[in-house]
């Protein structure tokens, strides 16, 4: 019988076909490949929904499609491509394909209607990216995940640098590529370490590496090579190596510096790649191998602290930015910090929940920003905007929905997911006091987030128009408004998939759909459930406000109140007819924030310090390696010339040389063989 | 048992087993017959058609036999004929497939070349007789048949090199080839007589059986083996019997160069592989370590061929030296043989056979491209080739394929054959042969890419204006060789499997 799972490869291949078609035939097609891209991603979306429904009806699926290398002898590794469809990947498939479809539609307005050139290249890039991202999502082993992880990085590079004739984009593309590559080196070493340790890189099953690691911690170390370390110590090292790739890709401190520069790419690309999907790859990877991470408390603590710190740190930089997309970029870094905090605090479901809601509302905000950018003729400075509220109502209302979700205002999607993250950190802090630090930073970031979000909204849409363009903005068409409306609705209502606080307070059983979904209540794969992770994880729950209900209510009240404080401050300062800059009030902190804590400068300084080492390497390469190569080639040519001269053209010489050589050989072998 | 004692019915059986050889011989006679019946008519295309059909049918029958497992261990083993003087097995058929493929390509390419020739029948029949003799070399199982078939292949080759009677270069090259050939044949015949003196037999398996008892005649046997090796080194154009090759290849008509450097070289290896693997393997411990002999010669041949090729200015002469270098690679198949290690021996010799197979197409194609350029009268040096890519793009693409494949870049058939060859050498414990092979391959990329650079990246210098004719036969042959060279990358699996199975049967 044909099931949804038979079509899993098609989910990945459809966008790939659109990539090939756009690349080779794009210039002959109407809209330069856009329709093909929309059709392909929409097809993938329908198939993904079918897969989601199949998982909903109680099945899960793991299948190996192609074993492309088989080891021999003592190290019989098999390297495979396969698919792992469980509740987590099914959900992620729907998110990625949905956003990709909407972004393709939006691109009609942002790229085609604006008369951009080289559109086939653009749609080919989007197609390849979508295919690679979907391949990453369905990956059933770490090596396959790594390969697609690198492919999405390549597509990100290509699309950030789409306007390669200008000065900024190529430089930003290189920076993004190099910084994420730095993290990926650690990831690659981690992949090799996983193979060397467990002999497999599979995510699921009794012979998967999380399962083997679990039994190793419980004392069964047979067939596992920990290189002389205690299993826990070694798994911490391996986990941190893989985490290197995660920190680079999900733009966590200290490898976050590429993401703000990546805003040089076209805005739909920012929405798809640098907000909703590729940046989520890091978080998704941690969730995918969560069964491995929860075994080592140290790694969990580091993840939580990095996440909490990034959430606060990036949010503070967002409050002084003048360009619309820059604010959103720092906000993205900050929100992924929240997800990492959730994962490190044992909040697996909370992290996936925030990943979902964030994908919708951040894609919405980026597309809204794209709409504003079209209207403003590509001027992104918020101080030149103002008063756009009445000129572009659809953009305004949807953008507002996204902003309320981002700021965490009840009852928008972001409120529920952010609240659950903070709640998980709070109740687990009893068993691991370090989490209090993460919780505190996450909590402090809440008012900052609300402040920069609404500063952005007020400066862009409220008050009086501050420039000629803002008084007469260019209208946008259905292909911009359509995706905005879909995402606006989702940003408002996605919270219903997981209303845990309502359940706990009112005692309504069964409305925490996402919890039940990820707990394999309908279908799933043994060992990959939130329940299992909680059992083997290091944390237990304590309730600092007495009962569970009181803690839920208090936590929600605190974060909502702080969000409202931030919103109120922004209202007071910027929701006026003629807003002025207030950054001077920050005093010395202003310069620090304007310069992003001098992170870029620090990295450049660090790079310059390593110049001595790289200089020596360069000298070695130029002098020794090239010297040897050049030496060999000139020796070859000179001796080739000599050899050429043996060939005199006189046949008598040839006969002589031939006979002499034969005689020499005869004498040599006669002595060697002892014939005399 | 003498030849005449064979049962009459066995003749039919023998003819049936040797069908590819018989078809080639009959085709050659047919070509002569057509020419004698109508000596005055200009029948170039009819003759070429007959010759092509004959070689293709022979190739088809050979492939059919190979696929059906004729002479293979699984279907009754090698077929011995004429008192064991001839043996039909997988190895012989594999090499016959190479010869007939090359011959077919060369015949097709020669049609345009001989358009204005007075007597094309002579050319085609010489070519077909040479191919017949090479096929016999591949199935020879006695030193007597080896010698006769080798000379039978050489004599038409001398005539072919000197075919352009009025061209001084061609005639001079033919004469030099003949003289060096005469010296080599003398050495070879003397070597055979010494081997016979020591072992008392000319049949290869009987020689092998007798080697254990030679005792004090070991020295005689050693000298004999070394001199027999000399005969093969001449045929394969290996150092120090290579002197004829650059001049013969350069002076001969380019299709003949293609034929000699691909088919004739492969024939030399076919017979050398069989004689040394079957007859002389026991002698490794007794008389002479011929593995070491071939090892030294392989290294010298690889280095000399590639280094000399790097400094040439004439493209055809560069290819001639590159062809010497490739003889060095194929010699690894003999050099890496050690007594008692049948599996490793079979692997490396099979890899050398597969390399000769791929080489048959890429090298023939390259020389046929030269033939096309000669046909246009463009010139012979790298400078003269500048900008050809714009005038003749399809052929130039094919030439780029041949060059990169000869260098062993991992995009064409030549990559796998070299890779398996070097890997086989390393697995047999001869890492130094593989190292020299890899280094010289890297050097070869230099001079092969010079051709590609000239074709595609340099500006034409005005000598290409007359280039308007389209030699159909040459084009067809070059493109066919190019397509097969590309297809041999994905299709290398069956080739190497057939070759290794054939080699394993020899060592079993």
From TrEMBL, chain A:
Record-linked InterPro entries: NADHpl_OxRdtase_5_subgr, ND/Mrp_TM, NU5C-like, Proton_antipo_N
NADH:quinone oxidoreductase/Mrp antiporter transmembrane domain span: 139-426
Residue ranges of domain NADH-Ubiquinone oxidoreductase (complex I) chain 5 N-terminal in the record: 75-123
Keyword Amino-acid biosynthesis listed: no
GO cellular component terms, A-Z: membrane
Keywords: Membrane, Transmembrane, Transmembrane helix
Protein name: NADH-quinone oxidoreductase subunit L
Gene: nuoL
Automatic annotation (TrEMBL), chain B:
HAMAP family on file: NDH1_NuoN_1
Organism annotation: Halohasta litorea
Bilayer disposition of the protein: Multi-pass membrane protein
Pfam entry (one): Proton_antipo_M
Keywords of the record: Membrane, Transmembrane, Transmembrane helix
Designated name of the protein: NADH-quinone oxidoreductase subunit N
Membrane spanning residue stretches: 12-34, 46-66, 86-109, 121-140, 146-165, 177-197, 217-234, 266-284, 290-309, 321-344, 356-376, 397-417, 429-448, 473-492
Domain NADH:quinone oxidoreductase/Mrp antiporter transmembrane positions: 140-444
Gene Ontology CC terms: membrane
Cited NCBIfam families: NDH_I_N (TIGR01770)
Tree of life domain: Archaea
Compartments where located: Membrane
């Amino acid at each position: 019988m044909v099931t949804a799972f038979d079509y899993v490869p098609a989910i990945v291949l459809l966008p790939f076909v659109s990539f090939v078609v756009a690349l080779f035939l794009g210039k002959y097609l109407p809209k330069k490949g856009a329709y093909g891209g929309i059709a392909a991603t929409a097809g993938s979306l329908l198939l993904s929904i079918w897969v989601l429904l199949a998982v909903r009806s109680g099945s899960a699926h793991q299948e190996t499609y192609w074993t492309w290398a088989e080891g021999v002898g003592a190290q019989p590794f098999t390297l495979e491509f396969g698919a792992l469809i469980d509740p987590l990947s099914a959900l992620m498939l729907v998110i990625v394909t949905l956003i990709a479809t909407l972004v393709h539609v939006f691109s009609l307005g942002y790229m085609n209607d604006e008369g951009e050139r080289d559109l086939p290249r653009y749609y080919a890039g989007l197609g390849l990216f979508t295919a690679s991202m979907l391949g990453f999502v369905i990956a059933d082993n770490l090596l396959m995940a790594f390969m697609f992880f690198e492919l999405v990085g390549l597509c990100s590079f290509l699309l950030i640098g789409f306007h390669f004739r200008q000065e900024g984009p190529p430089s930003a593309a290189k920076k993004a590529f190099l910084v994420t590559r730095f993290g990926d080196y650690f990831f690659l070493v981690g992949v090799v370490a996983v193979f060397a340790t467990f002999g497999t890189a599979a995510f699921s099953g009794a012979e998967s590496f999380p399962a083997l690691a679990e039994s190793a911690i419980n004392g069964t170390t047979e067939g596992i090579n920990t290189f002389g370390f205690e299993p826990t110590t070694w798994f911490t090292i391996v986990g941190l190596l893989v985490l290197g790739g995660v920190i680079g890709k999900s733009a966590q401190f200290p490898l976050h510096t590429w993401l703000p520069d990546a805003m040089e790419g076209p805005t739909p690309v920012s929405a798809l790649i640098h907000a909703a999907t590729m940046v989520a790859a890091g978080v998704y990877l941690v969730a995918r191998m969560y069964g491995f991470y929860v075994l080592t408390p140290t790694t969990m603590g580091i993840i939580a602290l990095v996440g909490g710190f990034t959430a606060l740190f990036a949010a503070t930089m967002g409050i002084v930015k003048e360009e619309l997309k820059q604010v959103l970029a720092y906000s993205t870094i900050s929100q992924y910090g929240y997800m990492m905090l959730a994962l490190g605090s044992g909040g697996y479901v909370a992290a996936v929940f925030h990943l979902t809601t964030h994908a919708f509302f951040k894609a919405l905000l980026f597309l809204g920003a794209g709409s504003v950018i079209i209207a403003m003729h590509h001027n992104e400075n918020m101080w030149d905007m103002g008063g756009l509220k009445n000129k572009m109502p659809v953009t305004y209302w949807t953008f507002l929905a996204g902003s309320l979700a981002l700021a965490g205002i009840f009852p928008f999607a972001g409120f529920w997911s952010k609240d659950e993250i903070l709640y998980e950190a709070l109740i687990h802090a009893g068993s691991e006091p370090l989490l209090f630090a993460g919780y505190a930073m996450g909590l402090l970031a809440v008012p900052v987030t609300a402040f920069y979000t609404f500063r952005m909204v007020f400066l862009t849409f409220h008050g009086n128009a501050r420039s000629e363009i803002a008084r007469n903005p260019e209208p946008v068409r259905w292909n911009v408004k359509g995706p905005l409306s879909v995402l606006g609705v989702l940003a408002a209502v996605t919270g219903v998939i997981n209303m845990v606080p309502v359940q706990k307070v009112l005692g309504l059983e069964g409305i925490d759909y996402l919890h039940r979904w990820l707990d394999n209540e309908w279908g799933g794969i043994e060992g990959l459930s939130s329940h299992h992770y909680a059992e083997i994880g290091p944390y237990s729950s304590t309730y600092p406000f007495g009962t569970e209900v009181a803690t839920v209510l208090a936590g929600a009240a605190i974060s909502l109140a702080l969000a409202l404080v931030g919103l109120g401050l922004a209202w007071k300062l910027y929701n006026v007819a003629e807003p002025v800059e207030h950054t001077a009030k920050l005093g010395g902190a202003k310069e620090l924030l304007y310069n992003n804590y001098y992170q870029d400068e620090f990295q450049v300084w660090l790079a310059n310090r390593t110049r001595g080492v790289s200089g020596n390497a360069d000298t070695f390469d130029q002098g020794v390696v090239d010297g040897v190569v050049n030496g060999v080639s000139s020796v070859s040519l000179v001796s080739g010339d000599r050899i050429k001269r043996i060939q005199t053209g006189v046949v008598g010489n040839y006969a002589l040389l031939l006979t002499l050589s034969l005689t020499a050989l005869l004498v040599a072998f006669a002595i060697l063989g002892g014939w005399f | 048992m003498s030849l005449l004692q064979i049962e009459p019915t066995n003749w039919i059986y023998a003819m049936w087993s040797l069908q590819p050889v018989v078809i080639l011989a009959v085709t050659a006679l047919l070509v002569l017959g057509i020419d004698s019946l109508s000596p005055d008519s200009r029948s170039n295309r009819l003759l070429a058609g007959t010759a092509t059909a004959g070689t293709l049918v022979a190739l088809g029958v050979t492939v059919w036999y190979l696929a059906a497992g004729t002479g293979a261990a699984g279907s009754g083993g090698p077929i011995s004929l004429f008192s064991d003087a001839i043996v039909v097995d997988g190895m012989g058929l594999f090499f016959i497939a190479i010869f007939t493929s090359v011959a077919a390509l060369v015949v097709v390419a020669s049609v345009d070349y001989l358009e204005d020739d007075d007597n094309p029948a002579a050319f085609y029949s010489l070519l077909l007789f040479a191919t017949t003799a090479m096929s016999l070399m591949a199935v020879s199982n006695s030193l007597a048949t080896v010698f006769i078939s080798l000379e039978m292949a050489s004599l038409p080759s001398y005539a072919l090199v000197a075919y352009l009677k009025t061209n001084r270069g061609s005639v001079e090259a033919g004469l030099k080839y003949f003289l060096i050939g005469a010296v080599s044949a003398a050495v070879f015949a003397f070597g055979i007589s010494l081997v016979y003196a020591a072992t008392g037999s000319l049949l290869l398996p009987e020689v092998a059986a007798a080697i254990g008892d030679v005792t004090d005649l070991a020295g005689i046997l050693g000298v004999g083996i070394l001199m027999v090796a000399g005969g093969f080194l001449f045929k394969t154009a290996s150092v120090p019997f290579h002197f004829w090759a650059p001049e013969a290849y350069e002076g001969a008509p380019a299709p003949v160069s293609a034929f000699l450097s691909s088919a004739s070289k492969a024939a030399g290896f076919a017979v050398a592989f069989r004689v040394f693997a079957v007859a002389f393997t026991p002698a490794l411990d007794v008389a002479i370590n011929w593995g070491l002999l071939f090892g030294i010669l392989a290294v010298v041949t690889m280095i000399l061929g590639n280094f000399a090729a790097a400094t040439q200015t004439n493209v055809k002469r560069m290819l001639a030296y590159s062809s010497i270098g490739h003889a060095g690679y194929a010699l690894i198949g003999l050099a890496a043989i050690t007594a008692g290690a049948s599996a490793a021996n079979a692997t490396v010799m099979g890899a050398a056979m597969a390399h000769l197979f791929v080489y048959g197409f890429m090298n023939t194609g390259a020389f046929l491209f030269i033939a096309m350029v000669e046909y246009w009268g463009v010139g012979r040096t790298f400078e003269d080739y500048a900008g050809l890519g714009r005038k003749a793009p399809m052929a130039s693409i094919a030439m780029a394929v041949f060059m990169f494949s000869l260098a062993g870049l991992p995009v064409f058939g030549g990559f796998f054959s070299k890779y398996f060859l070097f890997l086989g050498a390393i697995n047999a414990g001869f890492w130094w042969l593989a190292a020299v092979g890899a280094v010289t391959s890297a050097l070869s990329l230099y001079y092969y890419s010079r051709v590609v650079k000239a074709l595609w990246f340099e500006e034409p210098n005005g000598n290409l204006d007359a280039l308007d004719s389209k030699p159909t036969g040459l084009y067809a042959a070059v493109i066919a060789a190019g397509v097969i060279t590309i297809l041999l990358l994905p299709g290398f699996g069956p080739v190497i499997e057939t070759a290794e199975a054939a080699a394993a049967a020899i060592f079993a």
